[in-house]
Amino acid sequence: MTDATLRARPDDGGRLIVALADTILSDASPLLVEVDRRPVDRWVAPRIAGDAEHLTIDGVLEGTSLHAAWSARRIAGQPVWEFALTLRNDGEHPVTITRMDPLALDAGPAWRTHGFHSAWGDEFRPLHGHAGHHLVLESRSGRSSHGQIPWLGLERGGTGAQPGAGEPPAALTIAPAYSGNWHIHAMAGGHITAGISPWQFFVELAPGEAVTAPSVVLTVAASLDAAAVALQRAIAADWLPRTPFTDALPVEWNHWWPYEDQEVDEHVIADNARIAQLLGIEVATVDAGWFGAADPTSYWQEQRGDWSSVNTARFPSGLAALGQSIRDAGVLPGMWIEAEAVGANSLLRAAHPEAMAHSVEGRRADPSYRVQTESLDSADPTFLGYVCLGSPAGRAHVLESMSTLITTTGARWIKLDFNIDPDAGCTRTDHGHGAGDGLLRHYEGLYAVLDEVRARHPEIMLESCSSGGLRIDLGLARHVHGFFLSDPDYTEHHLQVLWGVRHLLPPIGILHWSWSQWRGDYPPSRLDWQTLSADDFDTTLRAAMLHRFGVSLWLPELRPELLERLRVHVELFQRELEPFVRDAVLQPLTESPERGGFGERAPSIQLSHPDGRVLVAAFVLDGGRRPVALWPRGLDPDTTYTVTDLADGEGRRTSGSELLEEGLVPLGDDGVTSWLLLIAPAS
After folding, report:
1. DSSP 14
2. Is residue 484 predicted with pLDDT exceeding 90?
3. How far apart are alpha carbons 317 and 326 in whole angstroms?
4. 199 partner at 20 to 30 Å CA-CA among 68, 436, 439, 627?
5. Which of 204, 238, 272 is the last residue in one of the domains?
6. Structural domain contains residue 650
C-alpha cells in the first residue's frame, strides 16, 4: 500500500491533484474534450463529490452545451484509479465530439518515459525517452496492441545524470482501457492526455444524447516495479472475470503449430487427446481448420465467418462427435473461433451483407503499421473483413455463432482470435452508429456479446488471441479470462514478452505456450526436437509455467523421454505453481532478455504470493552463464525459510537475512539451464 492520493478542487474550472506522500505530481484539469476540434477542459461551476475511493466532478463544460460527468474509482484498495467520462448534450442543437480524454495530467519535465512497440512476433519491444521531448503513443490499426502497447510508464528519482534524478522517487503508469484505437500524448514539459484516439474519430450527439468514453487507468507508486505490482493486484481482484473453473487453471493442449489447418483431422485430435489425458493435461483445443467447405486443402482465412459449416473432409463425424471424442479421451474440449472475422469468399458475406463492416470511402490504411488482414477483396476496397458489432445483425451473428459452437461441442474453452486490422472502423450509417464512431461501437458491441456468452455459459474459459498478442488491453480484460501473449513462443521471446506484459496483467490473466513444434518455417522457432536435451526441454516448459500453462506439441511423435518430462511438469504445475498463478504477482529480479541474443542472458523473476511464499524462476539463454546467485525480493530478514528446488524436491533451511545478503545459489549439474525454487516460511 502506498500513500498515493487524488483530490479535486473547484478552482479554475475544476482541477485534480495527484500526490504521492507530500509531493504533488500533477495539478491540472483531469480531462480534455474537443467539440468540432475546439479544445475545452474547464467546467462552469463544477460540482465535486466523493472521497478517496470514488471521486466525481460534473457540470457543464465552459462555452458548450455539454454536461461532463467525470469520475475516478479506486480499484481494490490499490493506488490504482479508473478515470471515466460521460458526455451528454444538454443543448437544443447537435454537437460533434472529436476528442474525449478522461485523463489529463501536468506532471512537469522531470520524468523518464517508457513504453513498448508491438507487432507480430515483436510484441513488447521497449522504447525509452524523457519528458523533455514530445512522445505520442497510439494505435491506428484498430487493434489495441498492433503498433504500440496501450501503456505509458513515467519514473523519476535515483542518482546520476538521467532526467528526474535527484527528485523524490515516484512513478506513474497510464493504460487506456480500450481495444481499438487509443492514444497517449505526453508532450514536452509533462502535459499528458489519454483516451480513445482522436484520429478519424467523431461522434454526433443529438439533443439529450450521451456518449461514454473508454476509460483510462492511472497507477501512482514509488517505482515502476511497485506500480506494476499494484496494477496486477488490482486487475486480479477487481477487473478480470473469474469463476471456479477459470480459477482452477486447467492445463491446455492446442493442435495449431504442429498441424495448422493442413494436417489436422478428427483422428489427430483424438490421438493427441488420449495422450494429453495420460500426461494430466485437462483441455484439448481444436484450433483453426474445423470449419468451411469439405476440402482437405482449404485455407482457413478465406472462409472465416462460416461457423455453421464443418469441413467434413477433415472432420467427417461432425462437431458434436468431435467434442464427444475429446471427452471420451478423458479431457475437456476447447474450440477456436475468429467470431468477428469474415473471409472474402465466405458464404456469410453474401448471405448477410447488412452485417458487414465497410469503410464507405475505401480509405487506405494508415501507414504507421503493417496491415495484417488477409482475405480482403481487391474488387471492393471498402470491405474491412469483419462483422460490425455496432449493428444488431453483427451482434446476433457473433453471439449465436459462439453459443452454438459451445453447445454443439460441449466446449469448456474458447480461443477467440482476431486477425483483422479494422483501421478506423466501419463508416456505414445504417448500423446504429455514425460515420466516425463505428470502431467505438464495434468494441462496445464486442464487450456486450462476450458478457452475454459468459452469462449463457458460465463454465466457459474465454481466451483472447489476436494474431498472437495484438489486442492486449485493459478494456478487453474486463470481458475475458486471459490473454494469449504472442504466436511465436521460443523461450527468449516468451520471456521478453512476459517481462513487458507484467506491467498490465497478473499471471492469472496470461497464457503463452511453451516452445512449440512448428510445422511451418519460422527461423527463430527452429529446434531439433530429436536431439533436444531433457534439461533444455525442461527450460522451455518452466518458462511457460509462470502463468496459465499450455502446450502446442506433436504428442504422438514426441520422444518418450520428453513425454515423461512433460508429464512431470504438468503435475508440478498443478501441485506447486497453481496457487502462485492464481494469487501471486510477477516481479523481475533482473533486466529483461531481448530477442536476437540481446538483453539479460540469465534472467530471473519471482512470483510473490500474499501468504509470504516466493517462487523464483531462473533461466540461462544462449550466450548466458549460470548465475552465481539469485536475489529474491521482499523477504523478512528475521524469518527462517525453507528453500526447495522443485526439480528434485530437496529443501534446506536458511534465514531471510542470509538470502538477502548472500543470495540464492542455483544448484544442479552443468547441463541444467533453468530452476524453479520455492521459498516458504519454515513451519
Report:
1. -
2. yes
3. 13
4. 68
5. 238
6. yes
